[in-house]
Write a structure and sequence with these properties.
globular; Pectate Lyase C-like; mainly beta
């Protein structure tokens, strides 16, 4: 092992299988004690790599990172569905091939402290004051497992609540050029919370069965969330960002059951493109708080019904009039998206009203063009197997008939918009005196 390359199983202090947090903190202390000079031959603090081999490593002490150029890496993200296992009768567990996530696995076993700051429950907390910002911290190719969810008073099975006060990675201070790649996050109330990010890359991770998956808080710029597989809980965010500019959200596969697939607040000049988004509720993509000059293009939206028995009746509280895509802001472009709405007409809320696909709530200068809506009235089936029920639902295109929808609704508080070829005369609700409108041609007309 070189001076700046560490293996947690070969470090002299602590037992990584009993408390990997203590071991990694000891390694970071060693890095800081050796790398003290800030300018030696145009260098001085190269940072280090900490390696976690395949295996199970319990974390009883929070890791605190306050050095730049640190990479913590493993040899496999190790994700497997804990939710499916916990919803299998316990007397059948002995027949399962495995019970827990694997790979290079960190088991978060921090105590819950009532009234503690939200960062207290994080397995890895990154925080450093002063100048320059902490830079180039990387997490790669290991699993962070929150182990269990807890009762929350809802009456849900405790393992289905998505609540346990645990976070995978929490970055509290301004940061530059961080990378989170190839990671697995499972059974955490918050998988990844990053504040004040600049040039952040969250790429090719498996983040599922977490209360909230990706939260970019405070403010930030020029970051990207790309090529991730994501699935949040019904009370949490799949992808959330606030006060960001130049954010790229691309090529993600977002599963149900997050309260939204992508939610932006006060975000400008950013892109949501080429994502596959799937939800059991309205409000799949929400731009609020005066989001402006953003591009929403070439995404596939699928809204259908929950097919898995343990979560029947759970939703995000929004009516179908809320909109699958809901926008408050100015100068946004919504171009070339495909919307599949496959729901039972008898379940629509409010009853007897057409569901809304794109809704412009407030703002002006928005451009909605060449979007395609396929809306079908289906009789959804449910099942005890999460995998089989979901695949059957995804592959079934037979329906009872066409579902009437409002493809675009422009509220009175939104004016000066342009809506082109995104619904025919009967499908678009718009004040033509205050907005520009060209309907999609209909067959035979």
């Amino acid at each position: 092992m070189s001076d700046n390359s560490y293996d947690v199983t070969k470090w002299s202090a602590g037992d990584p299988r009993e408390d990997i947090g203590e071991v990694i903190n000891s390694i970071i202390a060693d890095i800081k004690s050796r790398q003290t000079d800030i300018d030696v031959r145009d260098g001085g603090k190269p940072g280090a790599v900490i390696y976690i081999p395949p295996g199970d490593f319990r974390l009883r002490t929070q890791v605190v990172i306050d050095v730049s150029y640190l990479r913590i890496e493993g040899s496999g993200h190790g994700f497997t569905s804990s939710s499916i296992r916990f919803n299998v009768p316990e007397d059948e567990w002995s027949d399962l091939h495995e019970l827990w996530p694997g790979g290079s696995r960190v088991l978060v076993d921090l105590p819950n402290v009532d009234g503690a700051d939200e960062s207290a429950g994080a397995a890895f907390r990154v925080d450093r004051d002063g100048s320059p910002r902490i830079s180039s911290v990387e997490f790669s190719s290991f699993c962070i497992d929150g182990l269990h969810f807890e009762p929350d008073g809802s009456g849900m099975h405790p393992e289905n609540t998505y609540k346990n006060g645990r976070t995978g990675i929490y970055v509290g201070s301004a940061n530059d050029s961080f990378r989170i790649s190839g990671m697995g996050f499972v059974y955490l109330e918050h998988a990844l919370t990053i504040c004040h990010a600049d040039a952040l890359s969250v790429h090719d991770n498996f983040i599922a069965e977490c209360g909230s998956c990706i939260e970019l808080r405070g403010w930030g710029q020029a970051s990207k969330v790309t090529d991730n597989l994501i699935g949040a809980g019904p009370d949490g965010y799949s992808i959330f960002a606030e006060n960001h500019g130049g954010l790229l959200v691309t090529a993600n596969n977002v599963f149900p059951r997050g309260t939204s697939s992508v939610e932006l607040e006060g975000v400008t000049r950013s892109s949501i493109t080429n994502n596959r988004l799937h939800s059991f509720y309205p409000g799949m993509v929400v731009l609020r708080g005066a989001c402006s000059e953003n591009l929403v293009a070439s995404n596939h939206f699928l809204r259908d019904h929950e097919p898995w028995a343990p979560f029947l009746g759970v939703d995000n509280g929004q009516d179908d009039s809320y909109g699958l895509l809901r926008i408050s802001g100015n100068g946004n472009s919504v171009i070339g998206n495909h919307f599949s709405e496959a729901i039972d007409a008898r379940s629509v809320r409010p009853s007897g009203t057409p569901p809304v696909v794109v809704r412009l709530v407030a703002g002006s200068g928005n451009y909605v063009a060449t979007n395609h809506v396929v809306a079908t009235d289906v009789r959804a089936k449910t099942g005890e197997s999460a995998y089989a029920a979901q695949v059957d639902a995804l592959l079934t295109t037979a329906s009872s008939g066409r579902l009437p929808v409002t493809s675009v609704q422009v509220d009175a508080a939104s004016a000066g918009n342009t809506v082109l070829d995104s619904g025919d005369e009967t499908q678009v609700v718009i004040d033509k005196a205050a907005n520009a409108f060209r309907p999609t041609p209909t067959v035979g007309v």
